[in-house]
């Protein structure tokens, strides 16, 4: 370990390595403490538990992704109905590129959330995003109805599968650490594919 790091930085570095290798559930606090070159008693002066330590590493990144996604949904829902069909693709595209770039800037922390968080509250990130997206889809269907372009009822199970698949596809880019330029192209193609599919299902 780098001798110039502060104690807290040493803890975080050791914890990140342990969590990325073994996942939250199988990670050993004893290993983390040993790798950080300190005693367990000294460690508890910083964090009360393994859970609190994981939250220190992942919490703000989880919040950023969720908040950025919610902000895009609110921004879209706040537009006049006649504007929504025009700008839907633009707003959702900007949001996905922002999240993609953020994830690449904080790759290890985002991989902790996506791959290593089982047993913590952070493991539900995609489920939460699916729920927000489904609510947004229903609100948009109401707008289409108001505009005299009603959408047929979508089977809720199919809707859930399609939305979940969309987010898993998106986050696969981060998990596999695709080169960023390639990832941007994949997001563009992926969005074109899903947008066309949703338009078809919505009868637009």
What do you see in this structure?
By secondary structure, the protein is an all-alpha fold. About 75% of the residues lie in helices and about 0% in strands. The protein contains 9 helices and no strands. Helix 1 packs across helix 4, helix 5 runs antiparallel to helix 9 and helix 8 (about 155-175) packs antiparallel against helix 9. The longest helix is centred in the first third of the chain and has 28 residues, at about 50-75. The protein is elongated.
Helix count equals: 9
Strand content: under 5%
Coarse structural class: mainly alpha
Low-pLDDT stretches are none
Shape: elongated
Q: Nearest-angstrom radius of gyration? A: 20 Å
Ends distance:
58 Å
Query: What is the residue-averaged pLDDT?
Result: 93
Helix percentage = over 70%
Q: Strand-and-helix sequence, N→C?
A: HHHHHHHHH
Number of strands: 0
Could you give a short account of the major beta sheet? none
